[in-house]
């Protein structure tokens, strides 16, 4: 059957085209008879989806890179939406084409369901270059606050002392800072870290103001700036002068393992607790923490963690 041009599209056709283009690409273009543009839309969309999964981690390790990616996605989405509706309103939609059949639209739906299953499989196998997480507890205060959403990228180079990383204990994903590598000797002395016999530089910093919540008022917590031998610097909290884990005998980290600690030193179950965490195999440390992309404190959105 020869295709026909719709000269006077109604509001319903325009709304349906918009929704199909937004929710079920490339069905919007198929509906108005422009399959080639639909394939272009699908190719761009799949490319944007593939970037976090398989693209360079460096793109998502800065606020500028993340903003550029989001802006590109929004611009592409709006451009395709506007183009599909424009074609319809200009009377350039066509009907009666071979691919305008119910089973073609059903195949598009099935394809997106298939993508969902594939995406879940990639997450389960932890194969994506970039993944998003939420800070599950206060163990990394003041660097990460409970509930903040952050990006973690797969390791592309060896772990370094001072890295804030995502690691696995049993089936749990946790956040900790690499304090010592395989072959290092580490101890705790009155709340200070002693690495290979040398105490890390530790200076008092302005108090961290813990936000009010769960019936508790805002309060000031003692903070310190710690600097390791490589010059990497980060903030820590020391809630109690004689905390349970403030003193620990020297141990040597086995080869292929790391010693991890939370920045909230008196409220973190980490490598200082041998029975609970202990030395963590490097194979169980797959990602570095990158930047915060959501926080109740809007000033922290886009912050690259120390």
TrEMBL record:
It is found in: Membrane. Residues 130-294 form the Peptidase S26 domain. The chain crosses the membrane at residues 12-32, 39-60, 66-89, 101-118. This is Signal peptidase I. It catalyses: Cleavage of hydrophobic, N-terminal signal or leader sequences from secreted and periplasmic proteins. Belongs to the peptidase S26 family. Its EC number is 3.4.21.89. Keywords: Hydrolase, Membrane, Protease, Transmembrane, Transmembrane helix. It is an enzyme of class 3 (hydrolase). Pfam families: Peptidase_S26 (PF10502). It comes from the Bacteria. It is a single-pass type II membrane protein. InterPro entries: LexA/Signal_pep-like_sf, Pept_S26A_signal_pept_1, Peptidase_S26. It comes from Methylopila jiangsuensis. The keyword Repeat does not apply. GO terms for cellular component: membrane. One of its GO terms (molecular function) is signal peptidase activity. Its main location: membrane. GO terms for biological process: signal peptide processing.
């Amino acid at each position: 059957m020869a295709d026909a041009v719709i000269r006077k599209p109604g509001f319903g056709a325009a709304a349906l085209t918009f929704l199909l283009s937004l929710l079920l690409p490339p069905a919007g273009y198929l509906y108005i008879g422009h399959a080639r543009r639909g394939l272009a839309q699908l190719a761009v969309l799949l490319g944007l989806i593939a970037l976090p999964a398989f693209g360079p981690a460096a793109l998502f390790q800065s606020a500028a890179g993340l903003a550029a990616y989001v802006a590109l996605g929004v611009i592409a989405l709006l451009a395709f939406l506007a183009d599909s509706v424009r074609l319809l309103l200009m009377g350039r939609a066509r009907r009666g084409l071979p691919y305008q059949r119910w089973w073609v639209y059903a195949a598009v739906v099935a394809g997106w369901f298939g993508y969902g299953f594939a995406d879940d499989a990639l997450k389960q196998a932890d194969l994506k270059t970039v993944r998003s997480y939420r800070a599950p507890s206060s163990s990394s205060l003041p660097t990460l606050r409970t509930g903040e959403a952050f990006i973690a990228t797969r390791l592309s180079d060896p772990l370094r002392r001072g890295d804030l990383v995502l690691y696995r204990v049993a089936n749990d994903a946790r956040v900790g800072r690499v304090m010592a590598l395989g072959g290092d000797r580490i101890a705790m002395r009155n709340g200070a870290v002693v690495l290979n016999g040398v105490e890390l530089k530790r200076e008092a910093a302005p108090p961290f103001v813990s936000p009010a919540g769960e019936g508790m008022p805002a309060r000031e917590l003692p903070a310190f700036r710690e600097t390791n031998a490589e010059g990497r610097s980060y903030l820590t909290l020391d809630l109690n002068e004689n905390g349970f884990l403030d003193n620990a005998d020297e141990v040597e980290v086995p080869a292929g393992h790391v010693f991890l600690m939370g920045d909230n030193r008196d409220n973190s179950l980490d490598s200082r607790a041998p029975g609970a965490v202990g030395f963590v195999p490097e194979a169980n440390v797959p990602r570095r923490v990158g930047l915060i992309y959501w926080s109740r404190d809007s000033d922290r959105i886009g912050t690259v963690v120390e």
